[in-house]
Amino acid sequence: NAGVTQTPKFRILKIGQSMTLQCTQDMNHNYMYWYRQDPGMGLKLIYYSVGAGITDKGEVPNGYNVSRSTTEDFPLRLELAAPSQTSVYFCASRQGLSWANVLTFGAGSRLTVL
Amino acid sequence: AQSVTQLGSHVSVSEGALVLLRCNYSSSVPPYLFWYVQYPNQGLQLLLKYTSAATLVKGINGFEAEFKKSETSFHLTKPSAHMSDAAEYFCAVSEAGGTSYGKLTFGQGTILTVHP
Q: Is B59 an interface residue toward A (CB < 8 Å)?
């Protein structure tokens, strides 16, 4: 049981390039989330999904897009990379909204935009 | 709207000393509260959670936290620090109810350093 898997772990982009951060979970979780973590700022929610085909914006969605075509996958797309998107990105998932369901995090993807 | 404030971005203690990490929250509805720990180059792990049952919550690795509604606080404590406790700790809040969709609002984080 792999849990939440994120790829790549590290990536360097040039300004204006595009890329997709992949997130896959094998726990059949309905709810999935993308957070970004910046030093001294905690984690900020970018986008979330409550099930396949349903996504919504979080606190800091500008410059990002997501899709949820399957229960397992929740990729995060950066269309025109900017230095402000240099951050560590975490994907997370949970089975349902009962608070017995723990939020499971991936190991993170560190992105640098130069 | 909900928010979380962690007092002190860095806390340093000696091994064996009391650990106290402070967290205050604001929420317009009864909150659910969480403490997460992040070890270097890893994702976040849940330490403990408050979901309106007992106000004193015990978590993993000897940590506990007390929900104090009158003070809007949820401070994290551990009686005796161990070197392996060195990590970054995050307090988080979520509103009860289905419309929150499980979204968490995180504090800024507190880096705990443990000295021999």
A: no
State whether residue B102 sits within 8 Å of chain A by CB. yes
The DSSP letter of residue A103 is: P
Residue B5, chain A, CB below 8 Å: the answer is no
Cα atoms in the 13 Å half-sphere on the side-chain side of A87: 21
Q: Chain A to chain B, count of Cβ pairs less than 8 Å apart?
A: 58
Q: Does B44 touch chain A (CB under 8 A)?
A: yes
Q: DSSP alpha helices (H): ranges in chain B?
A: none
Q: What are the pLDDT digits (tens) for B40-59?
A: 888 899 999 988 778 899 99
What does the pLDDT look like over B65-110, one tens digit per residue? Answer: 999 988 999 999 999 999 999 999 999 988 766 666 778 889 999 9
8 Å CB contact of A40 and B108: yes
Give the Cα separation of A106 and B2 in Å (integer). 25
- Between CA B47 and CA B39 the distance in angstroms is 12
* Per-residue CA distances from B42 to A25, A103, B17, B24 (Å): 17, 15, 26, 25
Identify the H or E element spanning B37: strand B31-38
